[in-house]
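Troubleshooting: if your tokenizer reports a length mismatch, compare your output against this known-good record of 472 residues.
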Amino acid sequence: MQDPAPLVVAGKKKSSREVLVVVNPWDKTVVGRVSLASESVADEAVQQTLKGFELTKKLASFERAEVLSYISSRIKEQREEFAQLLTAEVGKPIQWSRVEVDRAVATFQIASEEAKRMAGEFLPLDLNASTRGRFGIVRRYPLGIILCIAPFNYPLNLVAHKVAPAIASGNAFILKPPPQAPLTSLKLGDIIEASGFPTEAFSIIPCTNAVAEKLVTDERVKMLSFTGSNTVGWQLKTKAGKKKVVLELGGNAGVIVDHSAHTEEAVRKNAIGSFLFAGQVCIKVQRIFVQETIYDSYKEKFLQVSKSLKTGDPRDPETHVGPLIDDEAAARVSQWISEATNLGAKILAGGARKERVVEPTVLEDVPKTADVFCKEIFGPVVTLHKFAAIEEAVAAVNDSVFGLQAGIFSNDYENILYAYNNIEAGAVIVNDNPTFRIDHMPYGGIKDSGFGREGLRYAMEEMTEPKLLVMG
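Known-good structure output:
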């Protein structure tokens, strides 16, 4: 049996007695074994990584840029290795794993460019007669240790969205990788180690939730960047004390399709957005609101496309919908489907489950009290609804505790503007899914979807503090 992969404490690899076994969600084979950090190891990671911050905060912008560019190029060189590992760890269909790797390449490259553009501001302070001759300079300074807690569904690129801006802004970091996919983070750690970034300034420590909570409460850690469930995120915020917190949490994204939309384009994109990676995406399409004049036509086409999506082995390049991450997740999704039908919903497509694979499921006549409407399904399920006027559709989208992203398919300027001005979400995407994200845009939500923004420049602002120098 292969020795467990070591964790990383301030650039040094360490093994432990406690081991995490990583299992492939599709065939349940063992992908690997990883050392788990104890509380004492986590404490050592904080202590040593804090010393590394003394080095990172002195790095010139060109040095940070070179580090990030190196990481980007090395990920690109190992594209297929990363993609195969992603598919093995989390069951993501290989075509989507390759897309995720490509995005991570871009994320680190954009961070490299932003490292050179972390500008300050000149302020004239001679606004009163008494302040004649004075001026100010504002510069952003790194915080210290950034605690990065990442989810399983994008175990490379969502890690990149925390690690890359931390490096670009001169911070040190401790990464708690997702327990389902720690090997991807450790592989990334090997690249960071060779990049020229001070090895003392980063730690990658797979650990239990209890150990992670100790890190969250540690006053030496200056910021928590968390992506995951809304329940866990808000709990951690209450324990974070005085440190800065950015939460990227869940959603049950709504899409509006009005009478002026290109229906076939909307159908094609909505079907992919509903069932991509078995719906295990926080901005997946969950609720579709279609104007009543085109509803029947849209529904017929949507069902055709949904039923044509290949389900099964994620290693097959043609597969769109693979397994859910574990048995518990698959059972929960099936239970929510059953609850909806018991409340009066109709299954138009799918609904069946075989082990961890749930068929792409389309529901109609779903009451607002059903979990599949009001909670985050995080599975391959979508609900269809009719609306008459745009005001009704926007109100339905807003009928949610979440507010991450929303979409509208329309060629009616007034409808688009009304949706943008009135939808309660961090972003409104026009003629595409709420699933749309390109990695430099400000990404984040409101309400139970969290607060703060990712997207390299925006994350760098979160990870720094402005300091004013007054001269004159």
